[in-house]
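Lab notebook, page 48
Experiment: co-folding of the full assembly
Goal: obtain a model of how the components sit together before planning crosslinking
Operator: M.T.
Materials (sequences as entered):
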Amino acid sequence: MQRNPYLPLPMKLVKNYTETEDKLIHTFTFQFMSEEDEKSFPYMPGQFAEICVFGKGEAPFGIASSPTEPGFLKFSVAKVGVVSTALHLMEEGTMVGVRGPLGNYYPVEQMKGKDIVIIGGGFAFTTLRSLINYMLKPDHRGDYGKITVIYGARNPGLLLYKDERDDWSRRSDIDLICTIDRPAEGWTGKVGFIPTVTKEVAPSSENSLAIICGPPVMIKFTQPELEACGFKPDQMIMSLENRMKCGIGMCGRCNVGNKYVCKDGPVFTRAELNQLPNEY
Amino acid sequence: MRMQKLASAIQDAAKKLLEEKKVDLVVGFSRGSLPLRSTPCFIRKPEDAAKLTWDCSCENNLANYLRRRQDRVAVVAKGCDARSIVALINENQIDRNNLYIIGVPCSGMVDRVKVDAALEGKDLIDVEEKGDTLVLKAKGVTMEVKTGDLMHDTCKVCRYGNPVVYDMMIGDPVPAKPEDNFADVAAFEDLSPAERRAALAAEFSKCIRCYACRNACPMCYCTECFVDCSAPVWVNKSTGTDDNIMFQAGRVFHSAGRCADCGACDRACPMGINLRGMTRKMVKEVKELFGYETGVNLDDKPALAEFKADDPQPFLVKE
Amino acid sequence: MIIAKNALPGLLDKLIAEYEVYAPVKEGTYSLYKQICQGNEAYFGYLNSKTPPKGILFPQSEKLFSYSGAQMEECIDSKKKVAFGIRPCDARSLLLMDNVFKNDQYTDPYYMNRRENTLLVGMACSDPAPTCFCTSMGSGPFDKNGLDVLLTDIGAEYLVEEVSAKGKELMAKMGLSAAGDSQKAAAAKAKESAEVSCRVSTDALKAKLDGNFYDPIWDSIHEKCLGCGSCTYSCPTCHCFDIVDEAKDCNGCRVRNWDSCMFPLFTLHGSGHNPRTSGKERMRQRVMHKFKYFVDRYNDMACVGCGRCIKNCPVNLDIREVLSDIQGS
Amino acid sequence: MMEYIGVDEGRVNFAWVSAAEGGRFGELVKEVTEKVKKLGPNKGIVPSQEAGCCCGCKS
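Observation: model returned without errors.
Model output:
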């Protein structure tokens, strides 16, 4: 009998870092307990995992660390429910359970040889960070063309991964554009909503793929801008979020049409989503 | 055939209301898909009014469909529905002038569980009403039973067969029934705590937590029910008998002074659990303590929403 | 082989010695599948149980594992079981559920372990109920597939037919006398006379469901539904479940409970957004899952026509009428 | 109502104490504690044989 898919892998919390000014989002770093545990957890950017806080419950979160960063897993979690609140109050050194890797991942094979446009909004930047680090790894970088990243949030305090963003903006092989909704003092970057910034940047759609992650309203207004730049439905890739419990396509709750977001997704192309009813 | 006359009177009333555009929708009963079953139906066009019917199996409480409606609705309401409507109006869940009540005096509805018991599990194929008896036909069995024996326990003690509020009354009033002495509740109270615990455990071990009792109850309309709450977990979601009892106890506490004892919970429970054993205890307490009966007149405030100086407090610890 | 009706409790006692035996037990005006300690507790008077026998393999509340701190201890049940007196439609529902609990990537050890250790001794339906429509859903009163043994009621005795190898091996240990021709003929006659009166046509159903997601018919279908879980919890093919923890500080257990798509909490997001806001979306999901999504994924309708949801619905919302309304729209 | 569903008498007590009556509050707490101690540990709503494991699963 195969490994029990409901049993989480024990991991230790080594870093509980407050990511945003309003303290609503923390980034957690979990360390594998043994080499063989790590081998049993091969994952790719875009996948998610169920974090189990013993005594509270389980919840699905996108994996923020990239497979190119061995030894640990990173998750950025907003304080919303029972599990996330328990995580936020957790001291370093506590044991948790992680179940996964779950779901499919960004089509890195199909992205090879293409320009990549990454558009992230609010705190849905976790799996995008994983993808960016995966692509920026020296032996992967050559596979991809120009990388443009548009990352927006309501105010500077809400932008995640500050130090990494500084590093990316210094690099020449990635074009990072950070924007905030309304001007804030001490902010020198762009100001404006993501759809308007996307219009300004107007990435060329020729031989390129766009990956969009963020709140539904942002996706709703950014998509026409991309279509205006010539992006066809199968050139736009999205990651959906739904209420999940089992994460392995059995408990029947995360379906959109006949697809289970946890097993057939969470990454879908706009073309696939167009066949499904818009019930998400 | 009293019921047939009522049915056609209801159809005409509904047809007239819809034709005169007085209401956009009539909520009533139509023939069910099984013998001796009728099912709630929503009539919007005058010509559909012919679907409406009335017989001794219109047991659902239609007040459930009237909460928070913006459109003008007419409802075919029997005694218990009318009481629930009054209770909901007192709690501002129904706008009285958007509601047209077609009152129908009711002498009692038939309990499917009792019909199953009479037929010992055979499936009912056909039923025929003869005066005050019912001829039940199943495969190889035909029996005639007095309707009174098959009636819901609620209806046996119901003193408000005639709707307490109506815009139009159909059919003549039914004779009032004697005062309800809550004999069943008193009997249960006389048992020792251990016997009570054992009896409740046996009854609620059958509960499958489908929440039909909660969803069928017109007074249960919280946006997030305490059972669904995860912070804190008031009641576990698994079907442990103690959790089932605590769920029902919690529900009963929330219906204090609001429950009109219409029996919709008992009728909806697929496992045939005697839920009214608990709810009626609360109804008895509220009646004894505050002399208050739910949904009896429109200008009453809910029992727990007001207090009087002379309210009794027998439960306080006397030092 | 043949077994006399009055010898059945004896046979059950023999089984109880070796297996955990589940059989319908009389409970007031209906029967439920329960584990029996003596043969005579079993009661076959009712055509079918109130809640389905799927509870034997997929209990309503099941402890997945218990833990104290990070020490976890699995609770996988692998005792040998016999489900006695199971109807052909319920047996078929277990076949349908196998698709779910063993998909291309994952296997659910709790269900599959029990599934492999459970023998299904079926009982044919001599007189199906007016609410049964199993023949329209790929099953039948005497349908054998999914069963290990099939008993047919022929008056004072049951004709015992072994269906699977495991069934043959089980019945061999019971030492029953062989069946005579007259008994076999009686069984065949019983088979002819068992006639399912209700037909539900489903040929146009899938095509209709493929295109009618935004059809206004869904507004009228759900209108009288109260949104309780009675139909889903009495349905043998409903497999949706919820996973919650029950614990005091950090010792406790992870429990799997049945869940229902008719409850709003089923799809409520942490952010408060709920893709299925009202009863209309939820009723549409229930019909779509059983008669379209399940067909898309596993090429079978997730319904065996047992009629429990028709009998148990508090407002008599009949799935047969829903299906004909959809195909008629 | 609590006693009705099987909680033993004396376990559930209500009292009305104003914020000023500190002394009375102390006495009341002492009194209720003694009363409950005499009753012994609470066996729960369901007869003990079934409330063994932490959740409702019968397995």
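Interpretation: Chain C is about 35% helix and 20% strand.
Next step: discuss with group before ordering constructs.
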